[in-house]
Amino acid sequence: MTKSDDRGLSDLDRRLLAMLREDSRQPVTKLATDLGLSRANVYARLSRLEEEGVIGGYTVRLGDPYDRRLIRAQVMIKALLKHGKTIEEALAAIPELSALHAISGEYDLIAVVEAETVGELNALIDRIGEIEGIERTTSSILLATKVLR
Fold first, then answer.
1. 81 exposure class (CB count in 10 Å sphere: 0-12, 13-18, 19+)
2. 36: Cβ–Cβ under 8 A, 6 or more apart, which residues?
3. pLDDT surpassing 60 at residue 34
4. Taking residues 27-45, what's their average pLDDT?
5. What is the mean pLDDT of residues 57-72?
6. Distance separating alpha carbons of residues 8 and 30, to the nearest angstrom
7. What local confidence, expressed as pLDDT, does residue 69 receive?
8. What span, in angstroms and rounded, lies between the C-alpha atoms of 78 and 16?
9. How are beta strands 134-142 and 109-115 bridged, if at all?
10. CA 97 from chain center: how many Å?
11. What does the DSSP assignment read for the chain?
C-alpha cells in the first residue's frame, strides 16, 4: 500500500499523473511496467482519478517544430467590474488564447495568447484591447519556456 495525502492521491497516483503529463498516449502496459503495477491496477487507478475529477481529460501537446514557431505573450488585463462575464466570454471565443487566469493586484486577468508572427500577435493584442469593458492591457512576450508540465 502506498501513502496517500489529504486529497487521497498516493505516491503512485502522482507518478502516474506525471507520466501522463509527459505523454497521455502511453499504452497502459508501459505505464504498468514503469510503475511496477498490473494493467488492471493501472486501469482501476485511471478510472478512479477520472471519476474523482483529478483527470479531467486528455489533450494534444503541440510538436516541437510547430511549437517553436509560435510567439507567445502574456496579456495583463484591467477590466471594468460590471463587464467581467462578458469579457471572459469574449476572450474565451478567441482561438489564439491558450489560457485565461483571474489574478489579484492591479490587473484582473492574465491571458496567454499565441500567434505565428509578430504582426499577428500585435493584431491579436489590439483585438483584445478593443473588447468592451477592457480598460487597459500590458503585454509581455514570452522568450523561452524553461519548464512546462
1. exposed
2. none
3. yes
4. 96
5. 84
6. 24
7. 87
8. 39
9. unpaired
10. 11
11. ---B-TTS-BHHHHHHHHHHHH-TT--HHHHHHHHT--HHHHHHHHHHHHHTTS---------HHHHHH-EEEEEEEEE-GGGHHHHHHHHHT-TTEEEEEE--SS-SEEEEEEESSHHHHHHHHHHHHTSTTEEEEEEEEE---S---
User: Amino acid identity, residue 110?
Assistant: I
Strand partners, 73: 113, 141
Please identify which residue in the block is written with the cell numbers 495583463: 76
CB 16 within 8 A of CB 54: no
Residue 72's beta-bridge partner residues?
A: 114, 142
Residue with grid cell 514570452, as numbered in its chain? 142
Average pLDDT over residues 10-39: 93
CA distance 113 to 142: 10
Q: What are the DSSP calls for 24-52, one per residue?
A: TT--HHHHHHHHT--HHHHHHHHHHHHHT
101-132 confidence digits (pLDDT tens): 999 999 999 999 999 999 999 999 999 999 99
Instruction: Grade residue 7 by pLDDT with cuts at 50, 70 and 90.
Output: low
